[in-house]
Every structure is written in C-alpha cells, then in structure tokens.
Specification:
heterodimer; A: two-stranded antiparallel sheet; 14 helices; B: mainly alpha; Carbohydrate ABC transporter membrane protein 2, CUT1 family (chain A); transport (chain A); membrane (chain A); MetI-like_sf (chain A); transmembrane (chain A)
Chain lengths: 296, 290
C-alpha cells in the first residue's frame, strides 16, 4: 500500500468516478511519508536562499559583515525605512509597476481578438503567423537591446514607461496569444453559433458571453504578462535612464565607494519579491494550467 | 476542433501583427542592416557583403561561447526535466498542502532575474553567505569568482533553483488531467508503480513536457542576467554564454557589424531548434485530438 499511495490519485478511489468530486478537500491528517519528505526537501531548497535574503535585510551592515548568525540578533527595519522614505528608491518600484501594468493591458487588449481568430477560424497563413509570433518569444533580448535603443530614441520615446511596455510586448503578446488560444479551444464552438443565431453581434457576444467564459484564462494570461515584464531587466534597463528607471536597475546603486550596502540591497531584493507573491496568491488554483499554456 | 475558413479573421489578428511588427521587424531589420555594412564613423556606412558573417564563423570566440552555451543548456535540461517530473509526482494532489506547494514553488519564478543573481551572489559568498560559509566550514574550497568548477556549479544550481519549479508545475498540470479511472484500471491489473508511470503518467504528460522542454531550452539559451550578476562571465571566460558575449561585443566594444552578424546566427540557431520542438509538439497535439 505504501507503494501505490505514492501514485497521485491512486490512494483515494471514489466509489462513483463519474460524480463530480466535492470541491472542498477532505482534510486529511498530514502523514509523513516518502512524498512528504521529497517535497519538504525540495521546498527547503527553494526557501533557503530566500530566507537568507530576508534574514540579511533585517540586520545591520556591521552585523552582516561582523558575525555569522542564522537569524538577526539585533532586529532592525532600518534598511526598509531607507528604501521607503527615499524617492530615488521607491520611485523605482513605481516605475516598474507602471510599465508592467501598461504592458499587461496592451498585451491583453491585442491578444484577445487574435487568440479568438486563431482558435475559431482558419485563414490564409494562420499557421505561419502563429509560428512567427512564437519566434518572437524565442528572440534573445540581447539581440534586440541595441536596435530597441535606437528605435525608441529616434521616435522620442526613450526613458518613458510606454517604451518599456511596448518593448516587452515583443515576448508578452505572443505568450498571451498562446495561452488565451489554449483556453479558448476548450470552449465549444456551439456556444458562439447559438449566440449568433440569437442575434448577438460579435462585439456584444465577445464581451458579454465569451470573455466571462474564459475569465480564468484571461487572469492567467494577465498573470504571465505581469510576471515576465516584472522579471525582465536587460530591455528595461537599456531603454531607461532616469524618469522610468526600474527598481531592478536602481539596485545597482548600493555599490558605493565604501563597498556594497548589503542590508539595503537585501531589503530592496525582498521588496521585489512581494508583488509577485501577492499576484500569485490570487491565481494559485489556475497557475499549473497557466504554465501549461492552457494546453491540458 | 474543425475550424471554419474565414479570411476576415485577419482583421482580428491585425492589431497583434502591427504591434509585434513594430517591436520585432523594425529592430530586426536594423540588425540585418548592421550585419552587412561597415562604417568609418560619422554615421557613414558602406556595403560590406557577408564579410562579418565570414569573420564571425571563423572566430574562435563565438564557437567557444556557443560551445559553453550548448553544454550549459544540456546540463540544465538533463537535471531540471527529470527532477521536475519527480517533484510533480510527489506533490499532494489537493487540499491546503497542494495550494501551499504551488505558491511556494512559484515564488522563484517571480523574482526579477537580477535579484535571483543577487540572492545567489550573497548566498554563495564565503564571508556572509550561508552556502559559501557552510561549504568553507566543512573544508571545501569554494569560491565562485575564482574557481572554474565553483562558478559553473553555482550557475547551474542557481538555474535549477530558479526554473525546476516551472517543469514541475507543467508536469503537475499534466498529471492533474489524468482521470482516476486510469489509476483504478492499473490497480485492477496490479500494475507496478513503474508501469503506472511508464504507460499512464508519462504519455499523458508528454504534451506539457514538450512545452517545458521548449521553454527551458529557449530561456536557457538566452540566459543573460543571472550569470552576469553572479559571475560576470568569469572567471576568465568560463561562464560567458552567448548573450553575455553578445552584449559585451555590441554595447561594450560597440563592434556593431560583427555583433549584428553574431545576433542573426544566434537567432537562427534558436529558431531552428525551436522549430523542431514546435513541430513535434503540434504533431503530439494532433495525435491527441484523434
């Protein structure tokens, strides 16, 4: 039995498989077994470096460099205060959030109709277009850094939030189209046809009926646009200098003449993890399907 | 799903086409432009044919960077894919612990890449890092800025830390889609744990695993920020991967011609390999649809 219980789903066999399973989990007592140990070790491996960062952010510099301790001896929030009261620090977060949100909105707005077209109709060149879109996801940002810089400088968008948002569309739009297409595939075509027979126009059908049906897909696509725009640094750093400088680039400031200000660096790092952790909480139930790009 | 032929669907695709063309085709043409021209400065360019391509193909520097890149991507895939599948098989199926695992596992994926670099830079330092300090205390000579193996190990462990969860989450999503009836049938047949994995779980996961391999291959082939922050491409050139070398060449030395030729060949390599994965993937999709 210990052998089969490792197989997901094999341990609990419901009497009637056709019946919908109750959504609320049967609160089983947490028994230590092989799987739990594997997961425990893996999660520990994931959390240790993050814990170390948090730990450092709560120490003073002299404690970081002077003593080696597994937890802060003199707990201090000084590093966070430094960041949250200095405009040149916290504006980095504001800038990052602005272009990330702009990018998410733009990506979704253009990707929704396109994904619908790909999932419902076949037209001349659709397969080639779809692959061409994906190739942009594969384009190394390093290749595009310099041309982007020249392009956005020449149209006068250098150092603006919209420039970064547009540049990130390069990889986020294809991704959004891909995810949304996967989710839309799962909606039967009969729904569209019935709506058109009932006299719905395309626009009204799309916003009133279709979008609510794939709302989880939209949420997941938005999450992924947010995520990839948030974590990208090369393009956002190349395209900004002062006014739209992202937090990730601001962090290099901690290397001063007197060495690196480790405490502030760690605190800034911890604060960059927070927005991601917040959004992840909202999409936690769809995240696995989202990572599979809707193709499960 | 059989699709209706409708050429008007192009209008729905048009916004995407315009936007992506603006941010992909124009810059790409700039790169192509640079790759076939040379300059004496002052923005005076002249036609240079395929000279830069010939030069880059003959340059040892590019082949070395490509070699390191291929080794790195292969090691990454060889570790992350089996490990990710293994973790997915051990994840709780539902309830509080499933959500808990999902959230914690997704955390590394949402950390900005240079912060990932910073985390490992700190974590591995002998004076203030937990990992470096511990290794030092048990007598292992570990210094990722000096030692070749230490640098490679750090970069690889960092990538495994950063991205294994992606493979695990994808495999988990694949596992979730397997109906319980399959497992019951296997149980009635008294199938071994290995047989269940080989004949039920693996085939069902294959589609998502292909996505995982595709994504991991593409992203590891483009890796720039994390190793740049941790090792800066060093010691020497030990961890100078393609993107790092390219940025050095284009923005550091401003050798636009060679860098552009390099970019195009780099892009073509990724494109070719990704096309292979993509074709396999769409064929799998078709087979599943039947």
């Amino acid at each position: 039995m210990t052998d089969t219980s490792a197989a997901p789903g094999a341990a609990s066999i419901p009497g009637d498989v056709t019946a919908a399973k109750p959504r609320t989990a049967t609160a089983k007592r947490f028994r230590p077994n092989g799987s739990a140990i594997v997961m425990g070790l893996y999660l520990l491996f994931l959390m240790l470096p993050i814990y170390w960062l948090v730990n450092m952010s709560l120490k003073t510099n002299s404690e970081i460099l002077g003593t080696f301790s597994l937890w802060p001896r003199n707990l201090t929030f000084e590093n966070y205060v430094t960041i949250l009261t200095d405009a040149s620090w916290y504006m980095g977060y504001v800038n990052s959030l602005i272009y990330v949100i702009l990018n998410t909105v733009i990506s979704l707005a253009v990707a929704l109709p396109a994904a619908y077209a790909f999932s419902r109709y076949s037209f001349v060149g659709d397969k080639h277009l779809f692959f061409w879109l994906l190739t942009n996801r594969m384009a190394p940002p390093a290749v595009f850094a310099l041309p982007f810089f020249q392009l956005y400088s020449s149209v006068g968008l250098f150092d603006t939030h919209i420039a970064v948002a547009l540049a990130h569309c390069l990889f986020n739009v294809p991704l959004a189209v891909w995810i949304l297409e996967g989710f839309m595939r799962g909606v039967p075509k009969e729904i569209d046809e019935t709506a058109y027979i009932d006299g719905y126009s395309f626009g009204r059908f799309f916003t009133r009926i279709f979008m609510p049906l794939i709302s989880s897909g939209i949420g997941v696509a938005a999450f992924f646009c947010f995520m990839f725009s948030w974590v990208e640094l090369l393009l956002s750093r190349t395209l900004t200098s002062v006014d739209a400088k992202p937090i990730a680039a601001t962090m290099t400031r901690t290397q001063g003449a007197a060495g690196i200000d480790w405490g502030v660096l760690a605190a800034a790092g911890v604060l960059t993890i927070v927005p991601g952790a917040l959004v992840i909480y909202f999409v936690r139930n769809y995240i696995a399907k989202g990572f599979a790009l809707g193709r499960v | 799903m059989n699709k209706t032929v409708n050429q008007k669907a192009w209008f729905l695709v048009l916004p995407v086409l315009i936007l992506v063309a603006f941010s992909a085709v124009i810059p790409l043409m700039t790169v192509v432009n640079y790759s076939v021209q040379d300059t004496f400065g002052n923005n005076v360019f002249f036609w240079n044919g395929i000279y830069w391509f010939e030069e880059m193909l003959a340059s040892e520097r590019m082949w070395n960077a490509l070699g390191r890149q291929v080794v790195f991507s292969s090691i990454i895939l060889a570790i992350e894919v089996p490990l990710g599948v293994f973790v997915a098989l051990n994840m709780p199926k539902k309830g509080f612990w499933a959500s808990f695992c999902l959230v914690v596992m997704s955390l590394p994926l949402l950390i900005p890449w240079n912060v990932v670099g910073t985390i490992w830079q700190i974590f591995g330092r002998v004076d203030i890092g937990l990992l470096g300090h511990t290794l030092d205390a048990i007598g292992i000579n570990y210094n990722y800025t000096q030692g070749f193996y230490a640098a490679w190990t750090t970069v690889i462990v960092m990538d495994v830390w950063h991205w294994t969860s992606l493979v695990a989450l994808l495999a988990y999503a694949g596992l979730q889609s397997i109906p319980d009836a399959y497992y019951q049938a296997a149980k009635i047949d008294q199938a071994s744990r290995w047989a269940v994995f080989r004949y039920i779980e693996l085939p069902k996961m294959l589609g998502v695993l292909m996505i995982a391999i595709l994504l991991r291959f593409m992203d590891s082939f483009m890796i720039y920020t994390e190793p740049f922050v941790v090792t800066g491409g060093g010691p020497g050139n030990a961890t100078t991967f393609l993107s790092i070398d390219l940025v050095k060449m284009a923005l550091g030395q401003f050798d636009l011609g060679p860098a552009a030729a390099f970019s195009i060949m780099y892009f073509l390599v990724i494109l070719a390999i990704s096309w292979v994965f993509y074709t396999v993937m769409t064929n799998l999709d078709k087979r599943d649809a039947k």
